Amino acid sequence: MKLFELKPKLGSRKKPKRVGCGYAASGKYAGRGMSGQNARTGDGVRPGFEGGQTPLTRRLPKMEGIPRAPRRKYTIVNLSTLEKKFEANEVVDPNILLERKIIKEIGFGVKILGDGELTKPLVVKAHAFSEKAREKIESVGGKAEVIE
After folding, report:
1. Does residue 104 lie in a domain region?
2. Helix, strand, coil proportions of the chain in percent (round to 5)?
3. Using one digit for the tens of pLDDT, what is the confidence trace for 43-72?
4. What is the CATH number of the domain that holds 127?
5. Which of 8, 32, 122, 138 has a CA 20 to 30 Å removed from the CA of 26?
6. How far apart are CA 6 and CA 26, in angstroms?
C-alpha cells in the first residue's frame, strides 16, 4: 500500500453543492435572490445589522430592577488559630487580631468559626459567631460577645 492509493471509505465523503453552475445545481442566482449586497461575493453584512435601521439590541430598553445590597463578607478566624495564638483568660477582639497579624483587615467584620478545639477559656469579641464556635467557647468557660 502506498500513500497515493489511500482513499476514504465509500460514502463517508459527500461532494459539496456546486452553486451557480447551471440548471442542475440551483443555477442562475444560486439561492441568493436577484441582486443586492448579499448576492455579491464576500461576507455581506455583519450579524445584527439591519440596513441602517436602529438594531433590535438598541431598540429594547435596558433591564431595570432593584439594586442588590452588597453581600457582607466577614473576615473569618477559626478556633484552632485562637488556641495557638492566645493564653488562657485573654481578651480577643478584632483590633488585637490585627495587631498580632492573624488577620489582614477587619472589612465588614470578623466571624469566629468552630474549626478546631479550644481547651482554655477566652473572652472573644467578634461581629459574628457560628453556633459550633459559640458552644465550644462557652463549654470551656469562656465568653462569646457580639460586637455591633
Report:
1. yes
2. 25, 15, 60
3. 788 999 998 999 999 999 887 787 888 888
4. 3.100.10.10
5. 8
6. 33
